[in-house]
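User: Second chain of the day. Same drill as before.
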Amino acid sequence: MENQMTKEQVIEATIQVLSNISVPVAKKREIADPIEGCIQNLAIVLQMIDAEKKATEGAAAARALEDQAIAEEEPEPGMEPIAFPAKKEETENGRNADAE
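Assistant: Same format as last time:
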């Protein structure tokens, strides 16, 4: 795919084109003011896109933290890992002594 632009790049290019339009002073109300309003609207759209990206990234980070917290929680009763009995200590003569 050749030279695809992001939506942000398209909006920025459109703002640039609109900003370079020259209008006679007599036509300011009819032409320049509406163009200026369009430029402001496009700038707001860029701000909204940026805010949505930040919100999405923040939500993804929060989900990752939640997933990590869930993984670290205590197991449900009856689901604990099996614990093997402690080894008996050896006595001086090499035999195993009771844990008592």
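The chain has a mean pLDDT of 83.

User: Great, on to the next one.
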